[in-house]
Amino acid sequence: MLSIHRLGRRTREKMTEEWNQSKRRRCVAKRKMERKKERKKTSSNPLKYFLNSISTAKLGKQHILWTPPERRL
To answer: Which residues contact 55 (CB under 8 A, 6 or more apart)?
Structure first.
């Protein structure tokens, strides 16, 4: 890595900005992969998949599935 201090301020800022962007991109890709793996795990187990779909579904008729009777409208 070439010495950052020899460069001008603008160049240095630009370099760190580029580095941060690439770092962010890597993090996003990593998270995406982790989510994908997680989804695969749940889809292989039907019960787990069903429970997940219940806990995540909060709209429409699916909402009725897990709301207690006294709270239903």
So the answer is: 66
Which pTM does this prediction carry?
Answer: 0.34
* Cα–Cα distance, 42 to 34 (Å, whole number): 13
Domain edges within the chain = 4-71
- Which contiguous run of DSSP H or E holds residue 7? none
Distance CA 14, CA 8 (A): 10
Closest CA to 33 of 25, 45, 21: 25
**What pLDDT sits at residue 71?**
56
